[in-house]
Structures are given as structure tokens and as C-alpha cells.
């Protein structure tokens, strides 16, 4: 949670505006920068298909 909060403050500004400023607002911003390589599907499907499943 801590390591994610820090990068989430400096990553979203560039990733959020380059990839998807609509989805990468807050929770997606952190995963969009680091998890986008591991699970790029988690960006939109996480809140569209199964938000609680992806997070939990």
C-alpha cells in the first residue's frame, strides 16, 4: 500500500494523461504504471467486469 501510494503520485500525471485520463483517475493510475506490464487488462476490466475480484 505504501510503495503504491508514492509512485501513484508521480506516475499518474504522465501515464494518466497519455494512456487513459478517464480510467486512470486515482486507483487505476497506480496500477496503470506498474501493473500495466503484468496485467494490462486490469485497467478497465477491473472496474467494468469484476472490480471487487481484481482487487480482492
From TrEMBL:
It comes from the Eukaryota. Residues 1-13 have a biased composition (Basic residues). Residues 36-56 have a biased composition (Basic and acidic residues). Residues 1-56 are annotated as: Disordered. This is Uncharacterized protein. It comes from Paramuricea clavata.
